[in-house]
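Minutes, project check-in
Item: structure for the 318-residue chain
Input as provided by the requester:
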Amino acid sequence: MGAPVIDTSPDNGRGGWVPYYYWPSLPAAAIFVALFAICGAIHIYRLFKYKGWYFIPFIIGVIFQAVGYAGRIGSHYDFNSLTFFIMQSLLILLAPALFAASIYMTLSRLAIALHAENLLIIRARWLTTFFVTGDVLSFLAQSAGGGMMAKGDPEGADRGQKIIMGGLFIQIFFFGGFIIIATIFHTRLNKSPSHVHEKIKGRKYLLTMYLANGLILVRSLFRVIEYIMPHDGPLMKNEAYLYIFDALLMFFVVAVYLVVKPYGEIFDEWKRRKDLGDLELTRRDRPQEREAMTSGGDIESALSSRSFSEQKPSSSRR
């Protein structure tokens, strides 16, 4: 028995608007709910194990994907439900922006961990701020456009598509800039005679970043083309395109960061250097640290003095 006929006539009660031009596939949606849920559970476990809190946006994105495809399961059973349509439309659309937010934060952390922040063309502090700000703008634009599309009327859908396209263009612009900056950093790292060991340590993280960025970029371009085409164009009428150029690519992004952990040894070094940097900024306010620094000690010895001074009161109470 085939899927029910979809009424796209102007007198269908919504001016010809329909949530889908096909009947959403139950098996395809269920498979990706399971894939994203399993990967998300592993990412959450590792998040708490390694305390890689900067990857929280990424994990929220994975949850968005799982819940979004669950919405498509709901649409399979209740085709005209705006709730399920909005759920899948917004969450699947917005998840890559959350992936991007964590990926943007990876480069500055990697540069600091490799003692190579001087090779960045933008200061590490501003690098994350600049690109995450762009990502937030893209996220907000896509959210607004998705909300307008979900109202269920043709005019709102048209306006929403244009706003979403604007958000996607912002995303593509910042992604392109980020890839350029990462490539320049990588090139400088390879050419630097004083960073031979760091080049080897950082290679897999940079290659993973390139792969993830490339996959999200292809997906964003697909979405732009999808929204440029008419509502009843081939990309909107064939569900397979969504799963090939969105679901599958985003699953690869999620999976690749399971293979190459975005936290662990090299980012422990980032945390250590960050602590030392914070200490250097505040050492004038701490007598023990000021004494250690002025008596010929280095930052690490000052850190040791701080650790000792922080532990001393607790030991005296025993």
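Outcome recorded: The two ends are 77 Å apart (CA to CA).
No further action items on this chain.
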